[in-house]
Design goal:
16% strand, seven-stranded mixed β-sheet, alpha/beta, binds nicotinamide-adenine-dinucleotide, globular, two-stranded antiparallel ribbon, Rossmann fold
């Protein structure tokens, strides 16, 4: 089992992440240590997680007063109405601030549950047990909570750190290849923006990682990814500057998700994979990155057989709509769109360096979507 300690820039909310296979059994011991005083435990359980884990959790938590809420999460119900329903149920159970909410689910379940934990009685203990590859290597770390509204994705939320995170790789066994690839998107992003060696390591090992056959490689990939995320969380917990580098590709991704109505036609991880391609191409157009570096990324996609029909996902006749959705992105503090661009593998531009007006972006868009790789 690997253990990574996440430190925040406030220095008060440090917490451990435990990563390994068949490690869920440590839950009672870690709860005792990190959530002292807890009597009641509310579990939010993602409906698609195999039922055997529900049974295991109930057994492990037999010494607590446990109530479990199973929810079918998707981007469309990642909203206030779901938060309201959960809050009402938990208020009826009269949880106190020393009680604990555990989320067992993917990134959507995690973002919604941590938001609930952060506002219920002004904050109760939160523990995350992420069950998708994306949530295990990215969203369960760093304390960003949130829900979508008609104005944009994750546009309402708080910063709220978990008491600890358990990353149990056994959960990944029931995920489709599509969901594994979505999770891989954020692993790849972390390598591209911060760690050239990690990128080279992925070039060598990603096929094995994506097959989930080699525990050692899988756990290493998740751990390396968590460490990149940890770096940014420590430097800038509340995303006032440096942490925005983690949004490489996300300005495009969020607008594409909104364009497709947050539907299963385009999952978040897929939007990120496409967004990173567009951001890389934009980096070349803006002469921030050379073709050779950009080609390393395009080659990586090719080798993993990651390809999309960009004409369908980013239709030419929707360019104005996509740009207007980008303007709403919460990382923009004026009417220009703030992009994190790539200088080379392992290094991005700084937040605020590249702000594009809508007219400038309109000019570049046809080139971006004619991307051949
Ligand atoms: N808070 C952050 O820092 C942060 C970072 C990155 C992404 N996110 C958010 O994370 C979300 C995406 O997360 P995701 O990719 O995990 O999507 P998700 O939560 O929709 O999960 C993907 C699918 O897998 C199912 N699932 C979950 N665990 C499973 C399991 N073990 N076996 C079978 N099916 C399972 C889910 O029910 C869902 O249908 C987005 O909303 C994104 O905005 C947040």
């Amino acid at each position: 089992m690997k253990k990574v300690i996440v430190k925040t820039s406030e220095n008060s909310n440090n917490y451990p992440i435990f990563i390994g296979r068949n490690i869920l059994k440590i839950l009672p011991e870690v709860l005792k240590k990190h959530t002292k005083g807890t009597k009641k435990i509310a579990i939010i359980f993602d409906d698609n997680v195999p039922i055997k884990f529900k049974k295991l959790l109930k057994k492990l938590l037999k010494n607590y007063d446990v109530f479990l809420e199973t929810i079918k999460f998707n981007e469309k119900n990642k909203n206030f109405s779901t938060v309201d329903k959960i809050l009402k149920k938990f208020l009826r159970k009269n949880l106190s601030r020393s009680d604990t909410l555990i989320c067992v689910g993917g990134g959507i379940a995690g973002d919604v549950s941590s938001f609930v934990a952060s506002i219920l009685k002004r904050g109760i203990n939160f523990v995350n047990i992420p069950t998708t590859l994306l949530s295990q290597n990215d969203s369960s770390i760093g304390g960003k909570t949130g829900v979508n509204t008609d104005y944009g994705k994750n546009i309402i939320g708080t910063f709220y750190q978990p008491k600890f995170v358990i990353i149990e790789t056994e959960f990944l066994k029931s995920l489709s290849r599509r969901e594994i690839l979505c999770g891989y998107a954020e692993i790849l992003k972390h390598a591209i923006i911060k760690d050239e060696k990690f990128f080279a390591w992925l070039n060598k090992n990603s096929k094995e990682i994506l097959k989930l056959k080699n525990d050692k490689l899988l756990i290493s990939a998740i751990t390396k990814s968590c460490k990149v995320k940890r770096h940014f969380v420590l430097k800038d917990t509340h995303e006032s500057n440096l942490r925005m580098q983690l949004n490489f590709g996300h300005t495009f991704a969020h607008s594409l998700e909104a364009l497709h109505g947050y539907s299963k036609k385009l999952n978040h991880g897929e939007a990120v994979l496409i967004g990173m391609l567009l951001a890389t191409k934009l980096s070349v157009i803006k002469k921030v990155c050379n073709d050779k570096e950009a080609n390393k990324i395009f080659e990586h996609y090719k080798n993993q057989k990651i390809n999309f029909n960009l004409k369908n996902v980013v239709p030419k006749n929707k360019i104005n709509k996509i740009i207007s959705l980008m303007i709403n992105d919460k990382k923009n503090n004026d009417n220009k769109i703030n992009f994190i661009l790539l200088k080379k593998i392992g290094k991005t531009t700084s937040p605020g360096d590249h702000k594009l007006s809508t007219s400038e972006l309109k000019k570049y868009f046809p080139k971006l979507i004619n991307l051949n790789f």
